[in-house]
Amino acid sequence: MQKILIIINDAPYGTEKAFNALRMAMTLQKEHSEEVEVKIFLLADAVFCGIPGQKTPTGYYNLERMLKLVIRSGGEVKSCGGCCEARGITGMEFIEGVKLSNMKEFARWMVECDKVLTF
Length: 119
Hints:
The chain is α/β, with parallel strands linked by helices. The chain has helices at 17-31, 63-72, 81-86, 103-112, and strands at residues 2-8, 36-42, 76-80, 98-101, 115-118.
């Protein structure tokens, strides 16, 4: 099974980078479920993607729903602890399934994965 690491760097809203990263993750899981294992690492302002309850306008994509779908489909999602600390959100609750992590684990994922995509 091929392991694919998707790194998201941008805030959840304002650009479409997080949206496109999660679209890719969901498509990989849907079209290649027997062939790939998806891992997502939230880095820099992307740590805000892991916070639940963000309100989006009707008809606008909702990253919380997308992340939950990726997790339900077997994907792993980790959020950089140092980035959370720098942004003052260390004690905040994350979407169920999003885990607080660190650079050591990020580096391990980088080495273990066959492909790395950055958004």
